[in-house]
Amino acid sequence: MGRVVSPVLVGRDAELGRLVAAVAAAPSVVVVEGEAGIGKSRLVAELAGREEVAGRRFLVGGCGRIREPFPLGPLVEALRESGGDLAAVTLTPVTGALRGLVPELAPVLPELPEPVADQAAVRHRQYRGLSEVLGALCPAVLVVEDLHWADEQTVEFLTYLLAKPPGGLSVVLTYRGEEVSTAVRAITARPADSVTVGHIGLGPLDAARTRRLAAAILDLDDVSAPFAEQLCERASGLPLAIQELLALLRARGEVIRWEGGWARRALDRLEVPAGVRDPVRERVARLPEGARAVVQAAAVLGIAVPVTALAGVSGLADAADGVDLALELGLLVERDGLVGFRHVLAAQAVYEAVPPARRRVLHARAADAVQVLPQAPLGQLAHHLRQAGRVGEWVETADRAAAQAAELGDAAEAVRLLEDVLRHADVTAERRVALTVRLGWAAIETLKERDIEDLLAAALDHDDLPRRTRGELWFLLALHLDGRTTDLSRRHRAFAEAVADLDDRPDLAAWCMAALGIPTAPQAPIAEHRRWLERALRLAPKVTDPAVRLFVLGVIAMVFAALGDPRWSELAALVERELEDREPEDRELNERELDERVPRRRETYACRALGEELCSAGHFGMAQRLLATALRGTAGHDVSGVEEFRCRVGLSMVAYCRGAWDGLRETIEVLRHAHVSGAYEVRLHAVAACLSPVPGELEQARARLREVVGRQRDLGAVDHLPLTVSVLVRLGAACGEPGAAVAETADVVAMWEAKELWPVGVRTVPALAEALLAAATGNPAGGAVPSGAPAAPMAPEGRAAAVALVERYADRLSGLDAPLAAPALAHARGFLVAAEERWSDAAELFVAAAGGYRELPARYEAAQCDEQAAACRFAALAGAGSDTEAAGRSLLAAIAAYEEMGARWDLDRAMRLARRHGVRPAAARRNGGAAGDVLTERQREVARMAAAGRTNAEIARELFLSPKTVDKHLSAALHRLGLRSRIELRRHMGEG
Questions:
Q1: Thinking of the domain 13-201, which architecture would CATH place it in?
Q2: Residue 219, CB half-sphere, CA atoms under 13 Å: how many?
Q3: Cα–Cα distance measured from residue 733 to residue 727, given in angstroms and rounded to the nearest whole number
Q4: Of 40-49, 262-271, 382-391, 870-879, which has the strongest mean pLDDT?
Q5: Cα separation, 900 vs 922, whole angstroms
Q6: Element (H or E) spanning 860, and its range?
Q7: Which pLDDT tens digit goes with each residue over 219-257?
Q8: Helix or strand holding residue 184 (H, E)
Q9: Which of 273-287, 582-596, 626-640 is predicted least confidently?
Q10: Nucleotide-binding: present as a keyword of the record (predicted)?
Q11: Which of 75, 217, 397, 705 could form a disulfide with 382 if both were Cys (CB 3.0 to 4.6 A apart)?
């Protein structure tokens, strides 16, 4: 019949050259992307024979379409035959963690380490072991195919591996771009600086390359151009379709030799089906019955199996002839004693053509065949039992598979299996409840959200549930609703219901109480939240799990900070100290010590959430420290990068609030590519929206801020609203609609006031007071501070409303720990006094506010106060004691700060004021205003790290900047300091 595939690679010389070059430049990672049948595997297979990569071990594994409850399958497949190569290598104890994962390597691995309870620590241990084994096998090429079917842990490990790969390792990844998740694409988003990164996209072949491929398959010098053009058109340039069409045409006798080549016969009448499906099916239909039965059996099995297993599924007493014919025709291939389809598309085409009744029979035989295989794959077995209609056996097998997956830390697969059973199998009520509880716990551990709310609620509808089980189900439902629903009252009720039934689970009860203390539920009075917090605080000492206890205390401290309760400080110190104790010491730690020092997800969450709340309340220094500690803590367990993303969003919020805007926009742009949804996406958009106002585009910025405020309100993120509301109100006033700005935010202001979040909400008081005063004048030019426009009479009720606002906050903040209170109230009172045209007094209030803001530091608000102080001093020029020089200094300080931060809208406004009063910012800066030895905050940060010996690439990675931006900041710092080199910088910074 002739060959089916080309003996040489055709039409991919450039792509192969790029692949070889990248693999030869280890450490490296190369992605080969393309649709099914485009030739990804063939391209990678050609790599092993190239001289440039001679001497490297090739470790090859692939992801399967039918998922097994066994994580890291491609790595296990790639490494299981490496025992001989590792026999002479001395491996560290951590590789003993691979004994259960890769039992074939057990003879060359150290003993199994002492067990640890936390699954994150178990995975971290396995990942370290895998990385070490791969390093011991270097120089090597790790090939992982079909990553679009990868399990969650394989994706996590590859991300972990590429963050610090062995020096002699090259990684080649293949996937279908249209089917791959964002998590898989993110694997190569941020590798180590030393890693060479390549991306090869394979497209369809054109007519010329199709002609060469056809000639190679047909073992000829050439084929006719018209034939090649039609072949290319019918196959859409897909190599797999081209080879299948040629095999079909030869079987039909539709191509003939002509003058040393091949040509079409009756081309216009030839109906060649497009793609892969129809040619494969027609080829199978032409087979003798025995061979057809074998091919159908292989399609149902879906994986390569021994010939005996294939014969058993086919139902043939003697399947040898059928197997031989299928192999001869190239429909099936044999590798390492296992027979299966060459390509999954062909298997799918055959499978779909098998009549349903016969398909069911074949699945039943496949289940029987798979059960007797060594280490029977439970995922395959469950799949066949289900398709065979053997529901009872399917449920049992899926249950076992889910238990195996959970034990191995593959929560995503456990969730998939359990959810499938609960949605499609008729099981007893008692078993349904037990399976639902397991599903709920597995869902907590997986990063990909699954909508299982209905299953949890259905389990709660069962009568006679044991109290503990009912409490556990309510708890799991509440956690599932957390961050996934805008029905905040329902989430609150679920936590409250759980508490009532968790008397014997102080860990879960304290967790629920702390959650109930978070002031998000709209119907719950603040007094109720406070009572829950006090109960959680009393119960916390009874929680034996240190991670849960720290989590609970972190949540309590978070709410205390928002309420201004000074007890937050002691709790925060405890959280910070505990996490710092878990950071690695200088001495060498044994494996158990190291694993126990890995901060777990809940502990890191406590540190991060507390840091975010301290930022909202104005404790910026402590917020920065806690978020940095949380970020370092993610290194031990967050190989997916989700927790790192959240920490960096929190740090971006701190940077915005502190006025450290240099490079912040670039950081936000990088974070946006993480494709993370939910509350943290909204927080990231909030910072971006607050940075967005530019001259001429204020209405667009208002629209973005309105959207963010609406989403924050729906999510119950009451404590994050003041930041965006303050900018939204200022923009409304600037656009000549101060009254509308106050009115459209009144409902959200009432939300945080009802929850007594005065230390957080005080941030908006200056903007609200200015807008109320502006609305009272009816003057669209602005509020109380002189803008150059004619003054307008002020409505008494408008001033009264502004005064009442300021005094209400001053009264409620009395005695609270609220660092924003003093400067924000002085800022607002400056507007009140300016409204009475007491310009000098107003200027003094603004100056005092600016000083208070700088101490926090809150440089953006300080600059606004400097600008407003200058405006008031200029307005007082006709009066006694006016200080033109002081006014100029204040305005220049504001302009310098706005320029440094890139606050274009504010800078434009301040420059207009400067021109109106003859102030020349550029000349002043040349005389020492913002140059000399004064560095921006970002320049200081880059200079400090460079002086400590960090490379530009290392600095860029840590600060989420590009190396080019780091170079710009470093050059500017050296210029401002009058230095010429890093060596001089080290001396200047005291580092050497």
A1: 3-Layer(aba) Sandwich (3.40)
A2: 7
A3: 10
A4: 382-391
A5: 13
A6: helix 859-875
A7: 788 888 888 887 787 777 878 777 777 776 666 665 555
A8: helix 182-185
A9: 582-596
A10: yes
A11: 397
Estimate to the nearest angstrom the gap between the alpha carbon of 628 and the chain centroid: 18
What tens digit of pLDDT does each residue of 536-553 get?
A: 999 999 999 888 999 999
Q: What is the DSSP string of 26-90?
A: SSEEEEEE--TTSSHHHHHHHHTT-GGGTT-EEEEEE--SSPPSSTTHHHHHHHTT-HHHHTT--
CA 735 vs CA 697, 699, 774, 834: distances in Å: 10, 7, 11, 21
Are 651 and 624 contacting, i.e. CB atoms less than 8 angstroms apart? yes
User: In what helix (H) or strand (E) does residue 162 lie, and over which residues does it extend?
Assistant: helix 152-163
Which among 808, 701, 797 has a CA at the least distance from the CA of 749? 808
More confident call, 810 vs 1: 810
User: What is d(CA 627, CA 558) in angstroms, rounded to the nearest whole number?
Assistant: 13
CATH fold for domain 279-389? Arc Repressor Mutant, subunit A (1.10.10)
CA distance 398 to 405: 10
Task: Please check whether residue 539 is in contact with residue 506, taking contact to mean a CB–CB distance below 8 angstroms.
Answer: yes
Which tokens belong to 159? 């991300």
How many CB atoms are located within 10 Å of the residue 710 CB? Answer: 12
Cross-strand pairs, 339: 305, 334
pLDDT number for residue 376: 79
Domain 937-989 has CATH 3.40.50.300: no
Instruction: Give the single-character DSSP code of 922.
Output: H
pLDDT digits (tens, 9 = 90+) for 850-903: 999 999 999 999 999 999 999 999 998 755 545 688 899 999 999 999 999 999
Instruction: Give the whole-angstrom CA distance, residue 66 versus residue 851.
Output: 64
Split at pLDDT 50, 70, 90, the class of 807 is: very high
Who has greater pLDDT, 484 or 356?
356
Bond before 963 cis per omega within 30 degrees: no
C-alpha 513/C-alpha 502 separation (Å) is 11
Residues 6+ apart with CB under 8 A from 121: 595, 596, 598, 600, 636, 637
State the pLDDT confidence band at 603, using cuts at 50, 70 and 90: confident
* Of the candidates 971, 973, 953, the residue with the CA atom closest to the CA atom of residue 962: 953
Residue-level pLDDT at 485: 63
SS3 category, 736: coil
Residue 331 contacts residue 284 (beta carbons within 8 Å):
yes
Cis before 857? omega within 30: yes
CB 25 within 8 A of CB 124: no
Q: Contact 245/287 with Cβ under 8 angstroms?
A: no
Tally of CB atoms within 10 A around 112: 13
Contact 933, 989 (CB under 8 A): no
Cβ atoms < 10 Å from Cβ of 464: 7
Q: Which residues does residue 340 pair with via DSSP β-bridges, in sequence order?
A: 333
